[in-house]
Specification:
This protein is mostly helical. The chain contains 9 helices and 5 strands, in the order H-H-H-E-E-E-H-H-H-H-H-E-E-H. Strand 1 and strand 2 form a beta hairpin. Helix 3 packs parallel to helix 5, helix 4 packs across helix 5 and helix 7 runs antiparallel to helix 8. The longest helix has 22 residues.
Length: about 180
Amino acid sequence: MNAERLFDAIRTVKGKALTQADVDLINAALNDNEPRRISAKGLDLIKRSEGLRLNAYRCPANVPTIGYGSTGPHVRMGMTITEAEAERLLRDDVDRFERAVERLAPGATQGQFDSLVSLSFNIGEAAFERSTLLAKHRAGDFAGAEAQFARWNKGGGRVLPGLVTRRAAEAALYGGRA
């Protein structure tokens, strides 16, 4: 049975039109055997926003960082990596955030998924999980969730122009305008 016929059958059973959130949840269930992946557009947003640095540096929050924004115990000040290593680290990091977003926001559209992966990649899984943005998304308040991106514009306690730009791009992708 194809997805459209399934949606029509469910509409008939429920006796009312499905919301987009209903359709997204059903679609996620139908595609349950494949892990969600960020699109090229989403990955490009992360790469463009993070930039590539082959030498370890401290980000505005004073966290040792390397490559395309990779952080963690594997990053030590003074280390240098190749572009290929930066790509591998990015893929490893993105895999982790794809799993987190799929678990926390099942049924997201591709644009929503991409923007949520980009956001969580930047702010961390714990902050994403506690965010009002995620709560609004899960409640089906997509306009409210989209508006929340702009609130995540600070690094090291101050508004950063790069984060303002990144959040605007993420919000546009979330809302289907990018």
